[in-house]
Design brief:
Blueprint lengths: L19 H10 L3 E3 L2 E7 L10 E6 L2 E3 L20 H6 L6 H13 L2
Length: about 110
């Protein structure tokens, strides 16, 4: 345990035989939101050549609140963050997870 806290995108493992898009929807649903249509945002291998970890990041432009989170041990706080605040959160080291950094930076570059 690192005894640290920071903002992260919902994330988790892709189960054997599961398509990454379904894993993304499942992970978001655990936070109490059902995503609208998901579309690929970026694919990354954070340590290519060292591990075979793959990160599939999807974008949903809408989500519907479905009730309390189902996985309380995975999050202390759930909030929607305005895109114009992301740069400050990165600079203040409130976003440091590489998977989240890759995702939010790709979202900012996406420009939609």
């Amino acid at each position: 345990m690192t005894d640290t806290w920071g903002w992260e995108l919902p994330m988790g493992l892709v189960e054997h035989g599961e398509e990454p898009v379904y894993a993304a929807a499942r992970e978001l649903e655990e936070t109490s939101y059902r995503p609208g249509p998901l579309r690929p945002l970026i694919y990354a291998q954070p340590a290519n050549g060292i591990t075979d970890a793959q990160h599939f990041v999807f974008r949903a432009d809408t989500a519907v609140f479905t009730g309390p989170p189902t996985e309380l041990n995975e999050s202390d706080r759930i909030e929607w963050i305005p895109l114009d605040e992301i740069g400050n959160l990165i600079r203040s080291r409130e976003i440091v997870s590489s998977a989240t950094l890759i995702g939010v930076m790709a979202l900012l570059l996406d420009g939609e």
